[in-house]
Amino acid sequence: MKSETRRLLIIGAGVEQVRAYELARELGLEVIGTDRDSDAPALRHADYQLIADTHDPEANVAAALAFHAERPIHGVMTIAHDVPLTVARVAEALGLPHIPIEAAELAIDKLAMKDRFARDGVAVPRYRKVASAEELRTCAEEWGLPLVTKPIDSCGARGVLRVTDADQLDAALETSLSYSKRGVVIAEEYLSGLQLSTEGMAWRGKTTTASWSERNYDRLEEFAPHIIEDGGVLPATLTETEVAEVTDLMERAARSLGIENGPVKGDIVMTERGPVVIELAARLSGGYLASHQIPFARNVDLVRQTILLSLGEELDPADLVPEHRCFLGVRFFFPEPGIVESIDGFDELEAEPWIMMRVLYVAPGDVIEPTTSHPTRAGFVFTVGETSEQAESRARECAERVHIRTRPRASESESAETLHPLVEP
Asked: What percent of the chain has pLDDT over 70?
């Protein structure tokens, strides 16, 4: 008797989601992709396409239910896309595994998330909802500068500003508000210390952290007041005690939000008082971290585990435990704003045996916008090293060898389609 074909619905079809589509098909699944753009790159790897705005849970529920009535769907997931509520609502409507709806709602509301963490004793920076410049000035007086303003509902560093001067407070509030769909902004204490991006999986209430990457912010002054990550290294150099502290913090943060089974991505600062959570995402990272970097350097395939989890299958905890294979250095490309005239040095990187991956998002004729968020970065290079220092120095060297030359735009009307994908790290 022929077994029933199983189908996986992947919410979103951006370029960074292609690996999930490919892997699902390698596992023998039929793939349904949903995106508002019928030309989204990952849809070419789907067996079926549903056109719906991924940030609209109701539209996706309606599309999924209509499809499910004809061909049953057996799992729902995403990667590199901040839509945990859409995933949870679609899975709930289909009677499939998902994180609690409340957990998904908390994960996309930075204020509600921090309120929950504070209630449950999970370490967070000092923070406060601010509705006026006067309230923001009060935060500055109490905490000192610098401080951070951010929308409660953005991602990819959109609208996240580091304020170093009292004269910047009014403009910072206005800018952060402009990026919030809900019109809500929080002020947050700026914490000094090693910044980490963690990636792991909660399974039956236990969270295993597979990766902790050091995030590099050496160019803060250049991109001020925007907070732009310009690279890093995986894994970050931590002591055994620090690894244990980070792992415990992520488990307590996941438990606080109510996530017992599912991906857990954390942004953490290592402070003098220990690790502190900036925020937690109930999804796998973008930036090719979960799909490429972690499997290569840590021997954990979190994309595969997320697929299995969405199908209701049992996970083997041993598959979540990292194994050190190498260090990976990361650097992004930041050309000057304007129209791209030429690109030199990128193709030549192919000759280096220690380059694991390189991607360029722009081509001659494209418009380079000012660097104000992570999606405006023009590309990246990942390099392999036997030590953290070697991996990072190789990445830095490669970034310096790539020259993306631009010319100023003659006028605001002069434009071209950019090749930047929707990246949500």
From this structure: 96
215 falls within a domain: yes
The whole-number pLDDT of residue 424 equals 39
To the question of pTM greater than 0.85 for the whole model, the response is yes
Retrieve residue 369's tokens.
Answer: 């916008």
Copy the structure tokens of residue 418: 């950019």
Last residue of a domain, one of 170, 189, 208: 189
The structure tokens 């009060």 sit at 138
Asked, for residue 2, whether it belongs to a domain, the answer is no
Q: How does 84-106 read in b/e, with b if 16+ C-beta sit within 10 Å? A: bbbbbbbbbbbebbbbbbebbbb
In a shared domain, residues 320 and 335: no
pLDDT in tens, 395-407: 999 999 999 999 9
**3 confidence band (pLDDT: 50, 70, 90):** low
pLDDT of residue 422: 36
Q: Are 29 and 6 in contact (CB under 8 A)?
A: yes
Beta bridge partners of 216: 231
Is there a contact between 225 and 262 (Cβ–Cβ < 8 Å)? no
Domain range holding 177? 126-189
Co-location of 73 and 133 in the same domain: no
pLDDT band at 127, cuts 50/70/90?
Answer: very high
User: What are the strands of the beta sheet with 147-151, ordered from one edge?
Assistant: 127-130, 185-189, 147-151, 161-163
* 382 located within any domain: yes
Provide the pLDDT confidence category of residue 410 given band limits of 50, 70 and 90. Answer: confident
Q: Are residues 302 and 356 in the same domain?
A: no
Domain of 11, CATH number, reads 3.40.50.20
Side-chain-side CA neighbours of residue 290 (13 Å): 32
In the numeric block, the tokens 């690996």 are attached to: 19
214 and 236 Cβ atoms separated by less than 8 Å: yes
Last residue of a domain, one of 189, 205, 240: 189
Query: In angstroms, rounded to a whole number, what is the distance separating the alpha carbons of residues 265 and 213?
Result: 11
